[in-house]
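tool=predict chain=A
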Amino acid sequence: MAGPYTAFGGGPGATVLDRAVAWVVTALVTTKFSLLFSFLFGYSFVLQRRSARRAGAAFAPRHLRRTAGLFGLGLLHAVLLFPGDILMTYAVLALFLYGLRKLTPRAALRLAAGLVVALAALLLAYGLLNVALTEPLTPAEYAPRVAHTVADYRGGALSVISAHLRELPSMLRADLLYAPDLLAAFLAGLAAAETRLVERRGRDRRWLRGVVVRWLPVGLAGGIVTACCAGRPLDSRWFLVGHAVAVLTAPALTASYACGLLLLVRGRAADVLAAAGRMALTHYLTQSLVLALVFTGYGLALYDRTGTAAVVAGCLVLYGLQLAVGHALPARVRYGPAELLLRTVTRARRPGPEGPASPGERRSADSRPVR
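tool=predict ok
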């Protein structure tokens, strides 16, 4: 959202610091946390089904309403704030997840593994052909399109929306390409919830350490290869090869992060993160709103005027503020505004007054992010 080159450390003439920050973000962050949220989405699917059963309500209508609500929010988000929206993709894949809900945990994991391997093979084959048969792109080749995009994002509100609509088809095609990876994470979450993995292993420190020790090196190695292919020293032709490696190894780093957090985050810090999880959808949309006000013609119009390092620092500050606000709000309200809206649509009625969340409830499995 900050500029056409931000994810790559800037365009021609970018500073060493900006390129280094982009390289580290690609190696350690990109795709890893989206997989974690996708896993939690699949996990929450089972929790919602159990909740509907306890309430004596039919699950299918609830799920369809929730899916429609997610899609509607995603469409508005994509058109008005950020064309790289993920909510519409989640909504569509949630329908596939409903169709696969009767799979046994083992069958779900096998299908997930098959989807990951198939996508990685496709990306690797196409990426190697790209390396063998094409030449690296030069700045002069994409400069006219970049100039047009920059002008639109620095223009007025209608100009920004026009840019979003122009970019939306390519974003949706990318979502379609990587949909198998997200569905695989949904299925892994489904299997974990069916086997009550968090309840069984979430406090087993020996098991958690074992996951980190075994899989962190694999994930880090894959992240380094991905960053080399996406930035430097390799050129743009290697981009898809790097993403093939990411598809295979990012789950290892994601699992290591999740288990590492369970090992390290206790007490008050755990409450802060749990509160953020309860408001994950609100935080996601708020991040897009703030960044749109900073970088587009909606506000300061700093698009393509800020280096990658400054953007990352600003994002960390923003998330820190969200953690603080999210921790304070549950003492007064139970849901964030986006969560309340989605919950109202899902249940076809406004949730009744249930009071603030207690610390124990904040740590409960029902407080998983909805993203």
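Residues 6-367 form one domain. The CA atoms of residues 1 and 291 lie 7 Å apart.
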